[in-house]
Amino acid sequence: MKLIENSYGSVRNLLAERRINCVKIVDHYLREINKQNTLNSFITLLNDRALKRAELIDHQIRERGLKKLSGLVIAIKDNICVKDVRTTCASRILSNFISPYDATVIHKLESEDAIIIAKTNMDEFAMGSSNETSHFGTVKNPHDTTRVPGGSSGGSAVSVAANLSMAALGSDTGGSIRQPASFCGIVGLKPTYGRVSRFGLVAFASSLDQIGPLTTNVEDCARILEVIAGQDTNDSTCSDSPVPSYVEALQDNMQGLTIGLPIEYFSEHLETEIKTRIDHVIDFLKASGFSVVPISLPHTEYAIADYYIIATAEASSNLERYDGARYGYRSESVQSLDEMYVNSRRQAFGDEVKRRIMLGTYVLSSGYYDAYYRKAQKVRALIKSDFQNAFDRCDCILTPTSPTTAFKIGDKMSDPLDMYLSDIYTVPANLAGIPAISIPVGKDMNDLPIGLQIMGRSFDESTLLKLAFFIERNYSTRDIAR
Ligand code: GLN
Q1: What are the b/e assignments for 252-283, b being 16+ CB within 10 Å?
Q2: Within-domain flag for 11
Q3: Distance of CA 151 from the midpoint of ligand 1 (Å)
Q4: Are residues 328 and 244 in the same domain?
Q5: Is there a single domain that holds both residue 215 and residue 351?
Q6: Which of 43, 102, 265, 340 has its CA 20 to 30 A from that of 62?
Q7: Is 354 in the same domain as 212?
Q8: Are residues 205 and 337 in the same domain?
Q9: Is the pLDDT reported for residue 2 higher than 70?
Q10: Does 152 sit in the ligand 1 pocket, CB within 6 Å?
Q11: Final residue in a domain of this structure, among 220, 249, 278
């Protein structure tokens, strides 16, 4: 018997009817994880911790019923701190770092009785689009193990897609939740900048980073967002705007919703099969009575360049703290303080991280600051205003999530620019700070998942989730003439 359908909604019903308990659920996932360890989706397993929590929650359910996430088995990207657990960021430099505190999102999940089962593999310091830059090795796509799962939250996406957890948390700086969700055929949401606290998230690029859920379905995504969103006195960048019930919003009426299609996102970069699929979804939405309008986001072509200046500048500054003195790895073979810094960083950062630190230091250096960094900030303002103008004409924007489906392991590692281009449709939402979701809408000829992205106004996650839910419920992913 398949014990568990991999959605929290269905498990929750079984729990409410007392037809299953949390210990059994955790046991089931631990066995699945054991069977599938070749996917390499985890860095640290938390078997004992998860079983203990399950016992405790079973007791609590008997005493006072279910909380919002009772029995949700969730995996956490390894750049989010869990108290007394290793947080490595998939880097050698933090490979022995034990977090002394919980991230706010962990605290919030556990207060609603979620169960953390593992820390997931990722690109080193969340820098990458394929999960190939991890110190702990490449993660494999469960749809085709010769292919990448996407990145940087690849381990989180695989954990959910391969039924090794019901859900996962990831972080998204330029697409790291949405692109792996798209490559693995699941749902991934990057909330509005400031919607979810980053306290306890290891910083990559602080003006872009957001934590968000990866799930098998939209309703689970809404449930988790509802719990992790909201003000946090430990994070001054976190907004105090009230958190609506995202789950209830799924049932709301969508009459009068206008969907914008940015012409720039349907260019020659896009694989034909993906374009055909997205067009098919658009036809379905039109037939369902939505009004669909063409829009323009004229500065899209600068988004990748802009992102890689801003993200690397912030990363070079955020990663200064790994000096061998305060955190993690310290080189043994040193004669002086300087040598300790240099050798520790040289030995323990991987190539991609070093490339970004160098690039970031360069664009911030006094001679080049105006030419690169300051200019990038101005371009960012233009990209942001593109979206503001667009949202005068439509309520949300529909695009592909990625120009390709999952590519082969090794294919893009020798060409960083080609790798960077795979984020072309996802980085603009981070630069503008707006929310964006990726949902699966079918497969290509190679049976690889295709993702659809919906972007919305700041703090309007409800509309994204609602439309995503409608598509999930009503759009038939099979029915396309090839
Ligand atoms: N792939 C992008 C990068 O390499 C985005 C990473 C992310 O969102 N963390 O920077």
Answers
A1: eeeeebebbbbebbbeeebeebbebbbebbbe
A2: yes
A3: 7
A4: no
A5: no
A6: 102
A7: no
A8: no
A9: no
A10: yes
A11: 249
Same domain, 210 and 331: no
In a domain, 384, yes or no: no
Residue 1 has pLDDT above 60, yes or no: no
Establish whether residue 172 lines the binding site of ligand 1, counting it when its CB lies within 6 angstroms of any ligand atom: yes
Asked if residue 173 has its Cβ within 6 Å of ligand 1, the reply is yes
Write the pLDDT tens digit of every residue in 281-327.
Answer: 999 999 999 999 999 999 999 999 999 999 999 999 999 999 999 88
Tell me how far apart the alpha carbons of residues 386 and 393 are, in angstroms, rounded to a whole number: 11
Share of the chain above pLDDT 70, in %: 98
Domain span at residue 359 reads 305-370
Residues 311 and 222 in one domain: no
Edge-first strand order for the sheet with 115-120 is: 42-45, 115-120, 73-77, 167-172, 210-215, 187-190, 436-443, 449-456, 396-400, 258-262, 291-295
Point out the ligand 1 atom lying closest to the alpha carbon of residue 208.
8
CATH code of 187's domain: 3.90.1300.10
* C-alpha of residue 79 to centroid of ligand 1, in Å: 13
Residue 221 has pLDDT above 90, yes or no: yes
pLDDT at residue 236 above 90? yes
Is residue 480 predicted with pLDDT exceeding 80? no
| Tally of helices (H runs) and strands (E runs) in the chain | 16, 11
Question: Is 477 within the bounds of a domain?
Answer: no
Q: Which residues are catalytic?
A: 77, 152, 176
Full DSSP string of 148-192 = ---SSSHHHHHHHHTTSSSEEEEEESSSTTHHHHHHHTSEEEEPP
Q: pLDDT by residue (tens digit) across 326-346? A: 888 999 989 999 999 999 999
Indicate the range of 187-201, 261-275, 292-306, 433-447 predicted with least confidence.
Answer: 261-275
Distances (CA, A) of 246 to 13, 75, 229, 251, 440: 19, 21, 10, 10, 20
> What is the H or E stretch that residue 462 is in?
helix 461-474
Is residue 53 one of the residues assigned to a domain?
yes
Q: Does the pLDDT value for residue 239 go beyond 80?
A: yes
How far is 218 from 257, CA to CA, in rounded Å?
A: 19
In this model, does residue 4 exceed pLDDT 60? no
Q: Do 19 and 153 share a domain, yes or no?
A: yes
Residue in 124, 130, 176, 359 to alter for ligand 1 test, most ligand atoms within 8 A of Cβ: 176
Q: Is the pTM of this model over 0.85?
A: yes
Per-residue pLDDT reduced to its tens digit, 95-122: 999 999 999 999 999 999 999 999 999 9
Q: How many domains does the chain have?
A: 2
For the chain, what is the mean pLDDT? 95
Instruction: Tell me what the mean pLDDT of segment 17-31 comes to.
Output: 96
Residues 347 and 217 in one domain: no
